[in-house]
Amino acid sequence: MPRITYIEYNGTEHTVDVPVGKSVMQGAIENNIPGIDADCGGECACATCHVYVDEAWLGLVGLPTPGSQEASMLSFAAVTQPDSRLSCQINVTQAMDGLIVRMPEGQH
Amino acid sequence: MSDQSRHIVIVGGGHAGGSAAAVLRQLGWQERITIVGEEPLLPYQRPPLSKQWLSGEATEETLWLRPEKFYADATIDTRLGLRVTRIDRAAKTVTLSDEVMLTYDYLILATGARPRKLPLPGSDLHGVLELRTVADAEALKAALTQGARLAVIGGGYIGLEAAASAKSLGAEVTIIEREARVLARVACPLLSEFFETFHRDRGAVIEVNAQVAGLEGEGGRITGVRLGDGRVIPCDAALIGVGAVPNDELARDAGLSCDGGIVVSLEARTDDPAIFAIGDCTRRPLPLYDRMWRLESVPNALEQAKQAASAICGKPGPAPEVPWFWSDQYELRLQIAGIPFDATDIAVRGSVAEGKFALFHLGADGTVLAVEAVNASMEFMGGRRIIQRRKKLSRAQIEDMAVSMQQLAA
Fold this sequence. Notes:
The complex is a heterodimer.
Chain A: E1 3-7, E2 13-17, H1 24-30, E3 50-53, H2 58-61, H3 69-74, E4 84-86, E5 100-102
Chain B: E1 7-11, H1 15-26, E2 32-37, H2 52-55, H3 60-63, H4 68-73, E3 76-80, E4 84-88, E5 93-96, E6 101-103, E7 106-109, E8 113-115, E9 128-129, H5 134-143, E10 149-153, H6 157-168, E11 172-176, H7 189-201, E12 205-207, E13 212-218, E14 221-227, E15 232-234, E16 237-240, E17 244-246, H8 249-253, E18 262-263, E19 275-277, E20 282-286, E21 291-293, H9 298-313, E22 324-329, E23 332-338, E24 345-351, E25 356-362, E26 368-374, H10 377-388, H11 395-399, H12 405-409
Parallel strand pairs in B: 1-2, 1-7, 2-3, 7-19, 9-16, 10-11, 10-16, 11-12, 18-20
Antiparallel strand pairs in B: 4-5, 5-6, 8-17, 13-14, 14-15, 20-21, 22-23, 23-26, 24-25, 25-26
Helix pairs in contact in B: 1-9
């Protein structure tokens, strides 16, 4: 099962197994990792599951499609960066074993 | 954990109660937590019940807020299928419906709301449904067979979402609304008109200004809805969605201050310092709008869960949020930021005809109070920021699509 490392804004690391097919957001919620709120439950409606994808993984994970719902939501999420994604929109694949994401200071 | 450790009892196993338990553990509460839930299920998400649950895309497991394993790992005790029948504030105990008594150091009331009942003749007929729980949704799903006729009493969000799902599943739908337009209590006339047209175009029949006089049946099953003008709308099932009332009786009986919901502070604390209340059952301050209000939404449940957990753990509370809501109907995504209290003008950004627009509700001084966005997430997100900052904008600025949302929100 792919292992994903979530790093809180304060630096605390959480490394957990996330089954293939779940989203990166679900991996955080199911393991009660602080820093990802996911108010809407994964519907891409709220932008409270915002993460920064580690540079080494950006190529594999990719950026949101320009003009997509995710891109629109992210354009006003708290403290966005060029490596910002909504974690509910990243579906975990076997190739993501080792993925590192960091959480922003806040989701609201 | 010894028996001497402190104990937080959460009354209610819905979105608010389940989230409070999870956030308490995130914030470092290491002592006892018990959730008492009336439904026989672990805390789950209700929004998919009118949508993905009916279409079969959601399962019990995908509804869960947290997987079963979480509660064991986090040593959160769940007492499901039970109600709290009494709070003894002096002794700091609650009594459950199985007569078991629990002592608490902190109590979190997350008792939610229940569908408002209509005192109609025939309400007890089979096929008369409401939609709040998984059990309700299951009964509705069973009724939505190809060609079945569903009468939806009440043109609010629940009714419209269920109507959209029912049509998509091949049922015939009639929406019966007492007011002159659907969404009358929660949206402006322009938005009501847009949704009415959309639903009619998809084949739903909408009856407005329609009083329901009674429900007719045969052999104990519903056969039709009788209107005030004497007409009968034939149906195989009727879904009643006419709002919700807060479950504040337990708090009332315990002498806590209630006013159409349990009155709480921005820490989600009641007038008893050891008792908090969160979610649909509360009447809470809205700092942005300088008033007390009762919100029925998932974001509100989560915000108040954080407020209560932060106060109990001695951490700073979350920054106040702009209230927000969403509703999915067919391919329409409605996202609403803020509440248009005392709004005097509406600016329309985008194209209503193309189904991609946002309505900005403005106060007399031009302050943006609320944004209702249809398939316009950028306007919703930008609107949230604008409202948070109490920014003033003119109608001309908002309606000029040459001005980007980034510029408007800057």
